[in-house]
Amino acid sequence: MTVYTSCATRKLSIAHIRRFKDDLRKHFDITDLGELHYILGIQVVRDRPTHAIYLNQTAYIRSMLEKFSMASCAPTTTLLTVKECLTTAQSLSTPEECNDYDAYTKGLKYLKIVSAILYTTQTCPDIQHAISVLAQFGANPGKPHLEALKRVLRYLKGTAHFSLRLSGENSDTNLVGWTDSDWAQAIDSCCSIGGFVFEVAGGVVSWSSKKQPTVALSTVEAKYMAASNAMKEAI
Protein backbone atom coordinates (compact mmCIF):
# COMPACT_ATOMS: atom_id res chain seq x y z
CA MET A 1 0.00 0.00 0.00
CA THR A 2 1.29 3.46 -0.94
CA VAL A 3 0.21 6.53 0.98
CA TYR A 4 0.91 10.09 -0.17
CA THR A 5 0.19 13.11 1.95
CA SER A 6 0.97 16.79 1.51
CA CYS A 7 -0.77 18.01 4.63
CA ALA A 8 1.27 16.93 7.66
CA THR A 9 2.26 20.06 9.54
CA ARG A 10 3.38 20.51 13.14
CA LYS A 11 4.64 23.43 15.19
CA LEU A 12 7.59 21.82 16.98
CA SER A 13 11.23 22.50 17.69
CA ILE A 14 13.80 21.30 15.13
CA ALA A 15 14.90 18.54 17.51
CA HIS A 16 11.32 17.28 17.92
CA ILE A 17 10.75 17.39 14.16
CA ARG A 18 13.87 15.31 13.47
CA ARG A 19 12.91 12.78 16.12
CA PHE A 20 9.40 12.56 14.68
CA LYS A 21 10.77 11.92 11.18
CA ASP A 22 13.19 9.28 12.47
CA ASP A 23 10.34 7.47 14.22
CA LEU A 24 8.31 7.47 11.01
CA ARG A 25 11.24 6.08 9.01
CA LYS A 26 11.44 3.11 11.36
CA HIS A 27 8.02 1.97 10.22
CA PHE A 28 7.44 3.54 6.79
CA ASP A 29 9.29 4.52 3.64
CA ILE A 30 8.92 8.29 3.55
CA THR A 31 10.16 11.14 1.39
CA ASP A 32 10.91 14.39 3.17
CA LEU A 33 10.01 17.30 0.89
CA GLY A 34 11.56 19.87 3.21
CA GLU A 35 10.03 23.18 4.18
CA LEU A 36 6.31 23.56 3.60
CA HIS A 37 5.42 25.36 0.37
CA TYR A 38 1.99 23.96 -0.52
CA ILE A 39 -0.73 22.34 1.55
CA LEU A 40 -3.98 21.18 -0.06
CA GLY A 41 -3.54 23.62 -2.94
CA ILE A 42 -2.69 26.56 -0.69
CA GLN A 43 0.70 28.19 -1.21
CA VAL A 44 2.61 28.98 1.97
CA VAL A 45 5.18 31.79 1.76
CA ARG A 46 7.39 32.60 4.76
CA ASP A 47 8.90 36.05 5.15
CA ARG A 48 11.59 35.29 7.69
CA PRO A 49 12.86 38.89 8.19
CA THR A 50 9.40 40.01 9.32
CA HIS A 51 8.38 36.67 10.86
CA ALA A 52 5.23 36.55 8.74
CA ILE A 53 3.46 33.80 6.82
CA TYR A 54 1.38 34.40 3.70
CA LEU A 55 -1.28 32.00 2.44
CA ASN A 56 -2.68 32.24 -1.08
CA GLN A 57 -4.47 30.18 -3.73
CA THR A 58 -3.17 32.06 -6.76
CA ALA A 59 -2.33 28.93 -8.76
CA TYR A 60 -5.65 27.30 -7.92
CA ILE A 61 -7.65 30.39 -8.93
CA ARG A 62 -5.85 30.69 -12.27
CA SER A 63 -6.39 26.99 -12.94
CA MET A 64 -10.08 27.40 -12.08
CA LEU A 65 -10.43 30.33 -14.49
CA GLU A 66 -8.88 28.22 -17.25
CA LYS A 67 -11.23 25.33 -16.48
CA PHE A 68 -14.33 27.50 -16.82
CA SER A 69 -13.06 29.42 -19.89
CA MET A 70 -12.75 32.67 -17.91
CA ALA A 71 -8.98 33.13 -18.09
CA SER A 72 -9.30 36.08 -20.48
CA CYS A 73 -12.22 37.75 -18.71
CA ALA A 74 -12.05 41.38 -17.65
CA PRO A 75 -11.39 41.72 -13.89
CA THR A 76 -13.84 43.62 -11.70
CA THR A 77 -13.32 45.29 -8.33
CA THR A 78 -16.70 44.38 -6.81
CA LEU A 79 -18.35 41.02 -6.18
CA LEU A 80 -22.00 42.00 -6.52
CA THR A 81 -23.52 45.05 -8.13
CA VAL A 82 -24.84 47.69 -5.74
CA LYS A 83 -28.49 46.92 -6.44
CA GLU A 84 -28.09 43.16 -6.94
CA CYS A 85 -31.40 41.46 -6.07
CA LEU A 86 -31.33 37.73 -6.74
CA THR A 87 -34.46 35.65 -6.15
CA THR A 88 -35.95 32.28 -7.09
CA ALA A 89 -38.31 34.19 -9.41
CA GLN A 90 -35.30 34.47 -11.74
CA SER A 91 -34.94 30.68 -11.89
CA LEU A 92 -35.92 28.70 -14.97
CA SER A 93 -39.65 28.01 -15.29
CA THR A 94 -40.43 27.46 -18.98
CA PRO A 95 -38.93 25.31 -21.77
CA GLU A 96 -38.00 28.48 -23.65
CA GLU A 97 -36.07 29.82 -20.65
CA CYS A 98 -34.29 26.46 -20.31
CA ASN A 99 -33.25 26.54 -23.96
CA ASP A 100 -32.00 30.12 -23.69
CA TYR A 101 -30.11 29.25 -20.51
CA ASP A 102 -28.43 26.22 -22.12
CA ALA A 103 -27.34 28.36 -25.05
CA TYR A 104 -25.95 30.99 -22.69
CA THR A 105 -24.04 28.61 -20.42
CA LYS A 106 -22.11 26.94 -23.27
CA GLY A 107 -21.68 23.84 -21.14
CA LEU A 108 -20.83 25.61 -17.88
CA LYS A 109 -22.30 23.85 -14.85
CA TYR A 110 -23.50 26.23 -12.13
CA LEU A 111 -22.88 23.95 -9.17
CA LYS A 112 -19.41 22.99 -10.41
CA ILE A 113 -18.46 26.66 -10.47
CA VAL A 114 -19.97 27.20 -7.02
CA SER A 115 -18.07 24.28 -5.50
CA ALA A 116 -14.81 25.40 -7.11
CA ILE A 117 -15.23 28.94 -5.80
CA LEU A 118 -16.18 27.70 -2.32
CA TYR A 119 -12.74 26.10 -2.04
CA THR A 120 -11.11 29.51 -2.48
CA THR A 121 -12.88 30.84 0.62
CA GLN A 122 -10.12 29.16 2.64
CA THR A 123 -7.91 32.16 1.85
CA CYS A 124 -10.43 34.63 0.39
CA PRO A 125 -12.81 35.70 3.16
CA ASP A 126 -13.88 38.66 1.04
CA ILE A 127 -15.95 36.42 -1.26
CA GLN A 128 -17.73 34.52 1.52
CA HIS A 129 -20.95 36.55 1.42
CA ALA A 130 -21.33 36.58 -2.36
CA ILE A 131 -20.76 32.87 -2.85
CA SER A 132 -23.01 31.91 0.08
CA VAL A 133 -25.84 33.89 -1.53
CA LEU A 134 -25.25 32.42 -4.98
CA ALA A 135 -25.03 28.85 -3.66
CA GLN A 136 -28.68 29.09 -2.58
CA PHE A 137 -29.80 28.99 -6.22
CA GLY A 138 -27.89 25.84 -7.16
CA ALA A 139 -31.01 23.67 -7.53
CA ASN A 140 -32.45 25.77 -10.36
CA PRO A 141 -30.24 28.69 -11.41
CA GLY A 142 -31.32 31.25 -13.96
CA LYS A 143 -29.31 33.52 -16.23
CA PRO A 144 -29.05 36.36 -13.64
CA HIS A 145 -27.61 33.89 -11.11
CA LEU A 146 -24.97 32.64 -13.55
CA GLU A 147 -24.10 36.20 -14.56
CA ALA A 148 -23.53 37.05 -10.89
CA LEU A 149 -21.45 33.89 -10.46
CA LYS A 150 -19.27 34.86 -13.42
CA ARG A 151 -18.77 38.25 -11.79
CA VAL A 152 -17.27 36.49 -8.76
CA LEU A 153 -14.83 34.75 -11.11
CA ARG A 154 -13.94 38.11 -12.63
CA TYR A 155 -13.32 39.48 -9.15
CA LEU A 156 -11.09 36.53 -8.30
CA LYS A 157 -9.07 37.11 -11.44
CA GLY A 158 -8.25 40.63 -10.28
CA THR A 159 -7.44 39.54 -6.72
CA ALA A 160 -5.77 36.17 -7.34
CA HIS A 161 -2.48 37.52 -5.99
CA PHE A 162 -4.01 38.51 -2.64
CA SER A 163 -2.80 36.60 0.44
CA LEU A 164 -3.80 36.07 4.03
CA ARG A 165 -1.00 37.40 6.24
CA LEU A 166 -0.25 36.02 9.68
CA SER A 167 2.20 38.15 11.62
CA GLY A 168 4.92 36.78 13.84
CA GLU A 169 7.16 38.61 16.27
CA ASN A 170 5.76 41.58 18.21
CA SER A 171 2.21 40.91 17.02
CA ASP A 172 -0.90 41.23 19.13
CA THR A 173 -2.12 37.66 19.67
CA ASN A 174 -5.41 38.69 21.26
CA LEU A 175 -8.52 37.44 19.49
CA VAL A 176 -10.39 40.37 17.92
CA GLY A 177 -13.75 39.95 16.21
CA TRP A 178 -16.43 41.86 14.36
CA THR A 179 -20.02 40.91 13.61
CA ASP A 180 -22.95 42.47 11.76
CA SER A 181 -26.07 41.62 9.80
CA ASP A 182 -28.44 43.08 7.29
CA TRP A 183 -32.20 42.87 7.76
CA ALA A 184 -34.53 40.72 5.67
CA GLN A 185 -32.33 40.92 2.59
CA ALA A 186 -33.09 37.31 1.57
CA ILE A 187 -36.09 38.27 -0.55
CA ASP A 188 -37.58 34.78 -0.86
CA SER A 189 -37.61 34.01 2.87
CA CYS A 190 -37.33 37.48 4.49
CA CYS A 191 -34.47 36.08 6.59
CA SER A 192 -31.49 38.24 7.45
CA ILE A 193 -27.86 37.44 6.66
CA GLY A 194 -25.40 37.57 9.54
CA GLY A 195 -21.66 37.34 9.52
CA PHE A 196 -18.50 37.60 11.56
CA VAL A 197 -14.74 37.78 11.15
CA PHE A 198 -12.04 37.07 13.74
CA GLU A 199 -8.43 38.16 13.66
CA VAL A 200 -5.30 37.00 15.50
CA ALA A 201 -1.83 38.49 15.08
CA GLY A 202 -3.00 40.78 12.32
CA GLY A 203 -4.41 37.95 10.23
CA VAL A 204 -7.96 36.73 9.66
CA VAL A 205 -8.42 33.24 11.10
CA SER A 206 -12.19 32.65 11.08
CA TRP A 207 -15.09 34.10 9.12
CA SER A 208 -18.67 33.35 8.15
CA SER A 209 -21.62 34.79 6.25
CA LYS A 210 -24.86 32.85 6.23
CA LYS A 211 -28.61 33.26 6.19
CA GLN A 212 -30.18 33.22 9.64
CA PRO A 213 -32.54 30.28 10.30
CA THR A 214 -35.48 32.37 11.54
CA VAL A 215 -37.05 35.66 10.47
CA ALA A 216 -35.93 38.63 12.58
CA LEU A 217 -38.67 41.17 13.31
CA SER A 218 -36.25 44.10 13.56
CA THR A 219 -32.70 45.10 12.74
CA VAL A 220 -31.84 44.84 16.45
CA GLU A 221 -33.06 41.25 16.60
CA ALA A 222 -31.08 40.37 13.48
CA LYS A 223 -27.92 41.88 14.95
CA TYR A 224 -28.40 40.03 18.25
CA MET A 225 -28.76 36.75 16.35
CA ALA A 226 -25.58 37.50 14.42
CA ALA A 227 -23.73 38.45 17.60
CA SER A 228 -24.86 35.24 19.31
CA ASN A 229 -23.52 33.15 16.44
CA ALA A 230 -20.23 35.05 16.51
CA MET A 231 -19.85 34.54 20.25
CA LYS A 232 -20.28 30.78 19.86
CA GLU A 233 -17.43 30.82 17.35
CA ALA A 234 -15.28 32.94 19.66
CA ILE A 235 -15.81 30.58 22.58
From TrEMBL:
UniProt xrefs under Pfam families: RVT_2
**Origin: domain of life:** Eukaryota
Q: Where is the Reverse transcriptase Ty1/copia-type domain?
A: 14-78
Q: Which InterPro entries match?
A: RVT_2 (IPR013103)
Which protein is depicted?
A: Reverse transcriptase Ty1/copia-type domain-containing protein
